[in-house]
Design a protein that fits this description.
Blueprint lengths: L2 E5 L4 H11 L5 E6 L8 H7 L4 E5 L5 H4 L8 E4 L6 H6 L1 H19 L7 E7 L4 H6 L22 H21 L3 E6 L2 E2 L8 H11 L2 E4 L5 E3 L1 E2 H13 L7 E4 L5 E3 H12 L4 E4 L9 E2 L4 H7 L7 H12 L9
Parallel strand pairs: 1-2, 1-4, 2-3, 4-5, 5-6, 6-11, 7-10, 8-13, 9-14
Antiparallel strand pairs: 9-12
Helix pairs in contact: 1-9, 5-7, 8-10, 10-12
C-alpha cells in the first residue's frame, strides 16, 4: 500500500495526478498546498472526499513544516511552484524563494525517508528558452539540449533559473545521499481546470464573444499535450525502474499545430464560424516549440492517446459554463 506525498496538489496538474492515483484504493495520498494559487473547488473537493486522500494546508518554504510530516512515504510528486508570466514579472522574489527553497527543504527531508522509491521533480520547457534565444535549439527538442540562462538581471529569468536550480538539487542530492529521483519537463499541457491565463481558455472566451479573432504569430507552432496523457506519463516515469535519475520530456510530439490552425480547431469544437485577423509575430515568440519524446517511448513504451481536437472537446465541455468565473 504505497504512501504518496504530493506538493502543490491543489493546482492544475497536481489535482489531476491526485485524482488518478487515488482511483487505486491501495494508494494512500497526502496532498499538501498552501492555497496561494491552488483552489479547493468542486473538482478537488470530490478527490479530497475519498477515503485514501488527506489534505494538509502548509508552507513548504518553512523547514519546520517537514517536521510535522511522517517519514513513511514511498513516492513524492513535487509540483508546488510559483509559475505564470504575471507572477514572474510582478513577484520574481516569490518565484526564487518558493521554487528554490521548497525544493531544497524537500530533498533535505527526503534524506530521512527510509522507504523512498522516487521523487518526481516537475520542471518545464521554459528551461530551454535561454538556449533558444542566444544559440537556437534543435526542434523537436531532446532532453540533452544544453541549457543557457538569459539576462540574469531580468525578472523573466527567475523562473527558468529556479527550475535549473531544482534540477541541480535533484541530481546532486540524489548522488550524494542516494535519493532516487526523476525530473520531468512539461510542454504545453492543457485541459480542464488550468485557469484562464493560457491560450486555449483565452480563446474560448474570445471566440464566444467575437466573430473576428485577432491571432498573433499565426504561423508559429506549439505541441499540445492533454492533461490525461501528461498525468499517465508522469505516474509511469515516477514508478518505472528505467527512469531513475533521468530527465524526461512530458508532451505530445505528434500534436504540433500552427496557432492559426489551433484557433480554427477551437472554433470548430465550439460550433462557431469565425474570421481570423492575422497579426505580426509577437517579439521573442519562438517560431516552433515541440518536445522530442523519443526518450520516454524508448524507456517506457509510453505514447499519448488523446488527439488535439478530442482534448479540446473534453476541455470545452468543462469550461463552457465557467467562462465568466475567471481566475488565474
Amino acid at each position: 500500500m504505497p504512501n504518496i506525498l504530493i506538493t502543490g496538489g491543489a493546482g492544475f496538474i497536481g489535482q489531476a495526478i491526485t485524482r488518478a492515483l487515488s482511483d487505486n484504493p491501495n494508494n494512500h495520498i497526502t496532498l499538501v498546498d498552501n492555497l496561494t494559487r491552488g483552489r479547493i473547488d468542486a473538482d478537488l473537493q470530490s478527490v479530497l472526499d475519498r477515503d485514501n486522500v488527506r489534505f494538509l494546508q502548509g508552507d513548504i518554504t518553512d523547514a519546520a513544516f517537514f517536521d510535522t510530516l511522517p517519514t513513511n512515504f514511498d513516492y513524492i510528486y513535487h509540483l508546488a511552484a510559483v509559475i505564470g508570466v504575471r507572477n514572474v514579472m510582478e513577484k520574481p522574489d516569490k518565484v526564487l524563494l518558493v521554487n528554490a527553497v521548497s525544493t531544497l527543504y524537500l530533498f533535505e527531508y527526503a534524506k530521512r525517508l527510509p522507504n523512498l522509491k522516487r521523487i518526481l521533480f516537475s520542471s518545464t520547457s521554459e528551461i530551454y528558452a535561454g538556449t533558444l534565444k542566444h544559440f537556437g535549439i534543435t526542434v523537436p527538442t531532446p532532453e540533452t539540449e544544453p541549457l543557457t540562462l538569459d539576462d540574469i538581471t531580468s525578472p523573466r529569468t527567475t523562473y527558468m533559473l529556479s527550475k535549473m536550480y531544482g534540477e541541480s538539487i535533484a541530481f546532486n542530492y540524489g548522488r550524494l545521499y542516494n535519493i532516487p529521483f526523476t525530473v520531468v519537463r512539461y510542454h504545453n499541457v492543457y485541459g480542464p481546470r488550468m485557469g484562464f491565463l493560457h491560450v486555449v481558455p483565452e480563446m474560448f472566451i474570445k471566440i464566444r464573444d467575437n466573430d473576428t479573432i485577432d491571432v498573433a504569430s499565426p504561423t508559429h507552432t506549439r505541441a499540445f499535450c492533454y492533461i490525461d496523457d501528461a498525468v499517465a506519463s508522469t505516474i509511469l516515469v515516477t514508478e518505472h525502474p528505467q527512469t531513475q535519475g533521468e530527465i524526461i520530456n512530458i508532451g505530445n510530439q505528434e500534436q504540433e499545430i500552427a496557432i492559426r490552425d489551433l484557433v480554427r480547431t477551437i472554433a470548430k469544437v465550439m460550433g462557431k464560424s469565425i474570421t481570423l485577423n492575422e497579426l505580426p509575430d509577437t517579439p521573442g515568440s519562438p517560431a516552433r516549440r515541440c518536445p522530442d519524446t523519443s526518450k520516454i517511448k524508448l524507456l517506457t513504451g509510453f505514447e499519448p492517446k488523446v488527439a488535439l481536437e478530442e482534448g479540446i472537446t473534453r476541455m470545452y465541455a468543462w469550461y463552457k459554463d465557467k467562462l465568466d468565473s475567471r481566475h488565474e
